[in-house]
Amino acid sequence: MADAEVSLSPALRALHLSPAHSPPPPPPPAGTMAASSSSPTTFSCPSSPSSASSSSSSSSSSSCSESSSDCPAHHHHHHHHHHHHPRPLPPPPPPPPGEQPSSPSASPRSSSPSGSIGSTGSLGSSSSSSASEGIGSSGTSSAGGGGGGGGGACDPRGPSPPLDVISEDAMEMDLAVDQVIDPEVALKACQEVLLQVQLQNREVPEQQQQQQQLNNNNTDVTESAGPQWDAGSIREEEEEDGEEEEEEKRGSVREISESTSSSAAASKQSWLLRLFESKLFDVSMAIAYLYKSKEPGVQAYIGNRLFSFPDSEVDFYLPQLLNMYVHMDTEVGDAISPYLIYRCRGGIAFSLLTAWLLGAYSSDMHISTQRHSRGAKLRKLILSDELKPSSPPPDAHSRACMASVSGSPATSPSHARRCHRRHNSSSVESSLSLCAAGTAPAKAEADIDVFVSPSRRTHQRSKSDATTASSGPGAGLRRTGSNPKVEAVHEEPDRLRPQRELVKSLLGIGKRLATLPTKEQKTQRLISELSLLNHKLPARVWLPTAEHQHHVCRVPHTQAVVLNSKDKAPYIIYVEVLECESFETSPVPVRIPETRIRSARSAENLDCGVSAANAIANGGSGMTSEHRAGSFSTVPNYDNDDEAWATDDIGQLQVETQTSSSDNISQFSVDSITSLESKEPVFIAAGDIRRRLSENLAHTPTSFRRDPEDPSAVALKEPWEEKVRRIREGSPYGHLPNWRLLSVIVKCGDDLRQELLAYQVLRQLQSIWQQERVPLWIKPYKILVMSSDSGMIEPVLNAVSLHQVRKQSQLSLLDYFLQEHGSFTTEEFLTAQRNFVQSCAGYSLICYLLQVKDRHNGNILLDSEGHIIHIDFGFILSSSPRNLGFETSAFKLTSEFVDVMGGLNGDMFIYYKMLMLQGLIAARKHMEKVLQIVEIMQQGSHLPCFHGSSTIRGLKERFHMSLTEEQLQLLVEQLVDGSMRSITTKLYDSFQYVTNGIM
Amino acid sequence: MSQLEKKAGLLRRTSSSKKPLKEKVVLMYDEIFAKEDPAKNNPRFWDELFLMKVNLEYLESKLESVDGEEVQRIQDNINSLFHHCVQALGEEHQIKVVNALQTLCALFRGVHQKNKSTSGFDIINMLMGFDKAEQRMKDLMERLDSLLCGDGSESLKSLCLKLLLCLVTVTDNISQNTILEYVMINSIFEAILQILSDVSSRGQHGYDAVVLLALLVNYRKYESVNPYIVKLSIVDDEPTLDVSISLLTVQYKDKEEEHQGGFFSTLTSMVGSMFIADADEKLSVQTNEAILLALYEAVHLNRNFITVLAQSHPEMDIPTTPTTPTPTTPTTPLGTTPPSLDMMNNPELPLDPNLQTSNLLITFLKYASIVMQDTKDEHRLNSARLCLIILTCIAEDQYADAFLHDDNMNFRVNLHRMVSFWLLEDTLHRKKAVDKNIPSRPLVCAVLDLMVEFIVTHMMKDFPMDLYLRCVQIIHKLLCYQKKCRIRLHYTWRELWSALINLLKFLLSNETTLLAKHNIFHLALLVVNLFNMFITYGDTFLPTSNSYDELYYEIVRMHQVFDNLYCMVLRVSTNTGQWKEAASKVTHALINVRAIVNHFNPKIESYAAVNHISQLSEEQVLEVVRSNYDTLTLKLQDGLDQFERYSEQPKEAAFFKELVRSISLNVRKNVSLNTLSQDILLKEFSTIS
């Protein structure tokens, strides 16, 4: 579809412009084309659906008629009429690609709502901006980029070929996506506007210039990426059939723009577009332009373009998107909202994430405005669970939704309204659209309304359908397809609820814990509350911080611990999950009662069947006596008979003696049993018993002491692998192959938005360093903001804080390293030391760039491989704890750290500084990517880290763009030197010790 | 017993006139007890009857007064009455239902009182007629079931439960209650469970339901297949169990609080070690027997229950519960809906920072610590025994053991400790330390503490041998678990050792009196074998190497006790007598202890001599012990880590039979009191309808 217009070539353009929509060379396509050509200017063309369909040529008819059948289709039609494109229609109807034939209904469905909007949008924008110029350029854009971008965008959701493929081969994409018209149209409209604006303003952003160069360099790339006109023209023609409607719309748009006129050098203006369409245009850039551009067309374009990026990439910028949505002007919001809504429909996880973030980012607004804010409304909408996923032909659906929504914000307000009125006669509608063209920007609710008022909408829809029911076999289907609302009525209850309830109860626990005075009470309370939670598991709930899809099946509640915090009660829980295909659709695992793992004598054994049997088998075979202490509960009862009560102890004993290696099992139990048979007296030396006792005690691994005031130390010190194994053995679900253990920290009463920001920056820097191949090591840990004062954190595994290390081991850091990893020359020590240096360098830079404060030893973790990991980014950028002004040094570098690095003159210390220099240079190169993350989040934020006016400037300055590399090296030296000498670090540590008891 | 006179008096009072002006209902009763079919003249007789307020006294006494001959005569009418009662249960008119329920109560009771001696079959015949009995009882149970499970009035449900309790307790020995055979066939187990799992009904009827269940489970439990036992053993609906558990918790708590008051006041006034045993107290102890029995049955029969037992809750909010038994305690998730649906429906626990986290096990331990303080009275002795039996079951259960020993689950358990005079100083001292700072430890420490406490405080003339045996066996089972799982419990084992040694000492010094009643050798053997566990398997479960030294120190320090014991058992075993064998077992068991004593004593003496010290310090003795292990050889004894599993039958059967009897009597008494005061109920329904 889109590619059809690819070309810049004047010839083609001429062709397009030619009033005579002569049938394309191969077979003269009559039908729609003709009709449209005949009355290029009439917007009000009252062509009824039926007439339209009838008018369309037989070849093209199928899609056409269908589209017409739906009310909104009128639009198409009537644009269609304006359609000036002399698109050569291939003689036979285009071979419908992929599933097209199977779902003929889908195309109209999807096209209809979006189509109407899109088209109007284009009208509105074009008229308002008096886009004269665009045509050529627009042609181009729409051809290559438009196709690639807009069209492609729609499809990745569908079964149609993945985006990349599409953008690389527009033809294919077109074919596949032909149903989706509207975003495309909207896109093109935007593009045109964009170009016009640029022309008029004569301002070409520098990026654009660069981009142009890039483009020039990459011509081939672009060519391959988006079909070039010449290459594509023929193909376009082929596709034409399938896409008539789109073409029509495009045509109409173009026509308008043309009518406005001037035909300036299109190529130049297309630079920005070329940039947008180029492969290099990534999410980061999209976000940047979205943020910086004040031109609605650009925003709208990018809004559409978002669809074309992989979800995961966009997800990274979700906080930025949402913050813009909440705090920036309506145009930006309108541009984003289709994407958001589309994604919300797509998944529960995204919906909830969005809702939480919206809530959090809206919280800084004044309470009165907040309630009516766009963010709050969208949040409400999401939480009301109106945004159901679309059903059977999911691609069609989603596209439809997307399109319908995307159209409206992208263009003008009236669209949304028009959606409601779709049932009106075409003439009314067209006139409306005309009026709408000039009206004010849409209200945010408008488009949302479309979804919020299902009843109204369905009603109308059915009406409209009724009128057109005869037009095609797909009518019935279409209804459901294009309007998920219809079937939503019959759908299952609240999808979001289980997860929300889970989060609610977890946060509730945190809140209640905070009221308890001692750690011990907190821990007990936590455990008992969690045990109640277990009653309700498994359920369709998941841990949002996890990588893979899963269902939570059990919380090993006794493993949970309260973390160290003075007045809040953050806690860490371990969660057993069962991985699955998709937590939304896979069946929720069946509950296995705790006791199932031990084969019970009770009759339920009969039906508990395979799983229990497995559990037993697993437990039995997998268990070595070494594990006994932990695994007692998996020890099977081998007697299922009536005597089960009476004998399982003995039974186990015997089993153990048979299977266990002699070393681990108590020798005495072996002896005592054998002696039963032999009756020979066995003698043992008391000394042996005593010796074995002390040996056994000595052999227990270096674990931390249990300290009621610091319950987390022991729990966190335990190696993760061991914990997993231990918990798995004790779990009734442990035998399942898809069993996993996850953990999460739940925080209540803490604002994690800054943490999230820090996480994003860390991630960004991490990927920059990876890209630039600087071996800096940092560990961004995932943050889940659930409101402005609660959230979850992904714990760093196998790590304890320096404070805990010091308190428990009573050793210097270096000695601790030696204890844990071996002496100086061992491989283990050297590896750990290198890890330490690389992580130190990474975090030193982070601390410097972000001005991370509150760097006491409780906030620095040490993992089992020797990495340090900074946690708690509560004080960054412009804020510092209690504004005491401690910690003036750039970052924390104590002499203990230097000792681990081998002293001031050691190679590793030099390596450390070199790493920092490299890291800084690399970061500088991509400064914009980092800045942008922070800058966008500053919008409307009252976070302490944005306090004052110079936050961004300060951050920018710390990248020292103006310095040469030599100067940078000097800077690094200075920073390191300063930090090392800094008494404030020491002072702060002792301050912390005095006030909080942190060593 | 025969209260005819009293009934008449009552009657007179109600009619409040000198001439006994008979109520209409009484007249109608009289008609029933006449030969004629009462419906013959008045077709609406039965309809009218159930509209009348029931006169239980009169009806019961009438039934009692009927003699053998008459029975034959009026059996048809009584059958008819029973039949119509059952019919009336299905009436929409709730007054009729209430009256029918009460009439049935009277029928069951009256018939039984009359026929104390006669067999159950006669009773069945008299009430229902043999040929129709099955059908009648089926109808009755179905009606009751639907009343209990329906969403009708709570008072009605309560009355249904009362009727059932009444039916269950009409005989002293529940197993002789032939009518219950029909209750077995037509199980109402599900209805009872439903009541327990419903939050609102649990509060009001929970107690009755639990008692009823406990009693039903005990119906011919050894002779036949009791469906209630089977069903109870397979319930695995954790929420439901959980609910019933929390009910028990509340009950316990209630009692415990009571005791606590009594206890503390006793303590402060230093009067002595006994509770003020007033009538109320007695009653509460008896009602507790029923609940303890229920707990026992649950623990014993249902493995899932152990899980629930270990499930922790914040302690119940007691102040609100006693006055208004309406279950404001939202601890319990809605039991019946599938987990995914009621997901997190009710995650809120009562929030009070002062509430300690607790679980049933903790509450139970506290309760047991109170009960076990005083074992003088028979009911209390029974309760203590039941507590120890429950603990025995728990100590044998792997899952419960795992929970008890879980290092992550630490609790402060405030056990109640006795202040007995002869240990006053010691105990007071301990008490102080305990009160100040009870460490938060794995629950098993509390169990051990409780056992130690019991051992220390019950060495009296009237020696509760049975309890001591159970107590020592519980310790043994726990040790076996620890040995097996290599759990090194940080417990002050010394307290246990010294308590055990003191126990041996007591046995020795009271040998003659005790031997008259008990086999003290069995207990001595168990105790010595506990030491053998420590001596030979200490490496597998002792927390520090020092603790092993301390064990030796303690044995050597108290060597005289062991010496004396050895002399005593040697003496007894060489004589011929009934204790010969038992005593000789003890001699064998003492081998290692004697080896230790004989090995180290000379060493310590020579150490003292060499160093010219008259009194060695503990540290010095430990030093000697440490340096002389290697020359000591011990003999490995058989089966130290094996124990006899608890089994109710045949050993405990008699105890439970008696217990159930006593509970039955008690319940019957209370039920009759309660059913008489149904005026409120009637009012409620008369206003409704």
The parts of chain A where pLDDT drops under 50 for at least 5 residues are 1-181, 201-266, 391-492, 597-678
Oligomer: heterodimer
> How much of the residues of chain A is beta strand, in percent?
under 5%
* Count of helix runs of chain B: 34
* Overall spatial form of chain A: globular
Low-confidence stretches of chain B: 1-17, 250-284, 314-355, 420-436
Strand order of the largest sheet of chain B: 1-2
What's the β-strand tally of chain A? Answer: 10
Overall spatial form of chain B: elongated
Number of beta-strand segments of chain B: 5
Number of helices of chain A: 49
Beta fraction of the residues of chain B? under 5%
Rg calculated over all Cα atoms of chain A: 33 Å
Query: Radius of gyration of chain B over alpha carbons?
Result: 30 Å
Q: What fraction, in percent, of the residue positions of chain B are helical?
A: 55-70%
What value does the average pLDDT of chain A take?
62
Distance between the termini of chain B: 37 Å
By secondary-structure content and strand pairing, the structural class of chain B works out as: mainly alpha
Keywords (chain B): Membrane, Transmembrane, Transmembrane helix
Protein name (chain B): Armadillo like helical domain containing 3
InterPro entries (chain B): ARM-type_fold, ARMD3-like, ARMH3_C
Main location (chain B): membrane
What does this structure look like?
- The complex is a heterodimer of chains A (999) and B (689).
- With 999 residues, chain A is mainly alpha-helical.
- In chain A, strands 1, 2, 3, 5, 6 and 7 form a 6-stranded antiparallel sheet that branches. In chain A, strands 8-9-10 form a 3-stranded antiparallel sheet.
- In chain A, helix 21 packs antiparallel against helix 23 and helix 40 runs antiparallel to helix 46.
- Mean pLDDT of chain A is 62; it is low at 1-181, 201-266, 391-492 and 597-678.
- The two termini of chain B are 37 Å apart.
- With 689 residues, chain B is an all-alpha fold.
- The longest helix of chain B is centred in the middle third of the chain and has 32 residues, at 238-269.
